[in-house]
Amino acid sequence: MTPSSATTLRPAVADGSDQALTAVSPGNGENLTEVPSEVALTFAGDVPQGGVRIEIAPPGEAPVVAEATVDGPVVTAPVPANGPGSYTVDYEVGELVGETGFTVLEPGQVVPVEAGTTGGALVSIALAAALAAVVVLTVRRWMASR
Questions:
Q1: pLDDT, tens digit (0-9, with 9 covering 90-100), for 45-97
Q2: Right CATH number for 17-104 from 3.40.50.720, 2.60.40.1220, 2.60.40.10, 3.30.230.70?
Q3: Beta partners for 56?
Q4: Integer Rg of the chain from CA
Q5: Which of 28, 47, 124, 144 is most open to solvent, judged by the fewest CB atoms within 10 Å of its CB?
Q6: What pTM was estimated for this model as a whole?
């Protein structure tokens, strides 16, 4: 595995569909306020014992091979706490190879919201409220005319 500071989730593809990665915790690209105690990778089917390798690169340090634990479709590994920064997790499960990552924020650090992400939600709520008002008024008029 090659260390990387990227926090992109590389697609995990193998010959068997039972090896497909279905979930990761912490989520890929997630911003956290503290270092998690472990990472968890969940696959579509049970993971065979052995043949599992997890490397975690704490911020500013070389990747560390983590002591992975397999429980059915879930592989967990402890996270070496190295404070705030970007953590990269490389994994090999059988023929399946991938990468994910997360960031631990500095105390008091606020993650900027991308432009348009909350505005779109507010517009959707306003449109839904306007549509509901039109329906209520239409029903009232219809009931009054009867």
A1: 999 888 899 999 999 999 999 999 999 999 999 999 889 999 999 999 988 99
A2: 2.60.40.1220
A3: 64, 89
A4: 23
A5: 144
A6: 0.65
